[in-house]
């Protein structure tokens, strides 16, 4: 890595769940000289060594080459989850915006690109054993989120061949949570009809146990540490990121002191599809289909090549997130605003 005085990191999507954690860690890192955070709206939050620029990646007018000039690395985190009823809109931001970022990295001759992929990019896999980074990344085509993540994986395959001098790192984290993201994620996935205070264990006498609903979780700060380590090393390629244990109805039942009750996939999907169709639920039934088919990830490569290990278990992550949900927690950025600012 270049000297701290000269090291300049640009972060897209810098005010969101992952972005705030990445910016905070980089601003505290003595090996980083400065951080430029890109977001649609400039926040009141002012961490050390950090400047902000208002940028909409969905707009072709954004001069990303100018913003990336002289950067040591670009960390691409920007992502739009909504509107789920208008996949063309998310495609413009996520896919076309991502391609603009990649092209600008090449034109500005940035030596390192760290891209936020996802477990959602993976093709369907087993819930009984974990897969490594060689597992196919074709996503679940019916879900816009997975389709877009998978498309950018293919785009980066081409980018890697065309620009071998750019060190490309792809992070594939599990579902990411932290206390400060609780209000944002309630709005994104639960919508305005799911008040945070209702997420209380005593109000849940039983939990639906749906076949295939076994996933992995990770604290956002732990994911951010992997990004920081990747920037300061010479690694390339993909890295799975997840904490133990895997999350299923049995684990959630212990957390909530609730009894798991078997519920068929068809019944659960029908309820989600009805709520989504009535615009009562932002999360689409297609994403539900994808979650049931996501493989579990083996994170050996991140441990051995990055020296990374999560500091929070999946149970701790969910407990912290639940407390944040109950209290309407947030942060001083527009995406993460808490209940009082809603």
In summary, what is this structure?
By secondary structure, the protein is α/β, with parallel strands linked by helices.
Describe the protein's architecture and organization.
This protein has 342 residues and is of the alpha/beta class. Helix 1 (17-28) packs across helix 6 and helix 3 (87-107) runs parallel beside helix 4 (144-162). The chain contains eleven helices and 13 strands. The chain has helices at 17-28, 64-68, 87-107, 144-162, 182-190, 220-231, 249-256, 265-277, 285-293, 300-305, 314-327; strands spanning 8-12, 34-39, 50-54, 73-76, 112-116, 130-131, 167-173, 175-177, 206-209, 217-219, 237-241, 259-262, 296-297. The radius of gyration is 19 Å and the shape is globular. The strands form four sheets. The protein has a seven-stranded parallel β-sheet with strand order 3-2-1-4-5-7-11, with helices on both faces. The protein has a two-stranded parallel ribbon with strand order 6-13. Strand 4 (73-76), helix 3 and strand 5 form a beta-alpha-beta unit. The chain is 37% helix and 16% strand.
């Amino acid at each position: 890595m270049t000297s701290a005085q000269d090291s300049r990191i640009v972060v897209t999507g810098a005010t969101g769940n992952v972005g705030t954690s990445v910016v905070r860690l980089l601003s505290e890192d003595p090996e980083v000289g400065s951080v430029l955070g890109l977001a649609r709206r400039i926040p009141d939050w002012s961490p050390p060594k950090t400047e902000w620029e208002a940028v909409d990646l969905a707009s072709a007018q954004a001069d990303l080459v100018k913003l990336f000039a002289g950067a040591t690395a670009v960390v691409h985190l920007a992502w739009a989850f909504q509107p789920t009823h208008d996949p063309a809109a998310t495609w413009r931001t996520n896919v076309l915006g991502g391609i603009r970022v990649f092209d600008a990295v090449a034109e500005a001759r940035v030596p390192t690109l760290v891209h936020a992929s996802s477990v959602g990019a993976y093709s369907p896999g087993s819930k009984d054993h974990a897969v490594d980074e060689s597992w196919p990344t074709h996503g679940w085509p019916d879900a816009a989120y997975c389709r877009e993540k998978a498309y950018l994986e293919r785009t980066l395959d081409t980018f890697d061949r065309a620009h071998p001098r750019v060190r490309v790192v792809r992070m594939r984290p599990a579902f990411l949570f932290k206390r400060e993201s609780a209000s944002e994620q309630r709005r994104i996935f639960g919508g305005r009809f799911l008040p945070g205070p209702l997420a209380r264990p005593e109000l849940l006498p039983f939990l639906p146990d749906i076949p295939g609903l076994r996933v992995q979780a990770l604290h956002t700060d732990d994911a951010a540490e992997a990004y920081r380590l990747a920037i300061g090393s010479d690694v390339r390629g993909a890295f799975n990121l997840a904490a133990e244990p895997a999350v299923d109805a049995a684990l959630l039942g212990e957390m909530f002191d609730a009894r798991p009750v078997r519920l068929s996939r068809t019944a659960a999907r029908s309820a989600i599809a009805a709520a989504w169709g009535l615009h009562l639920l932002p999360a689409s039934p297609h994403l539900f289909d994808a979650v049931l088919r996501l493989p579990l990830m083996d994170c050996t490569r991140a441990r051995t090549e990055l020296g990374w290990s999560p500091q929070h278990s999946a149970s701790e992550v969910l407990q912290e997130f639940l407390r944040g949900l109950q209290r309407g927690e947030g942060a001083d950025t527009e995406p993460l605003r808490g209940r009082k600012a809603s």
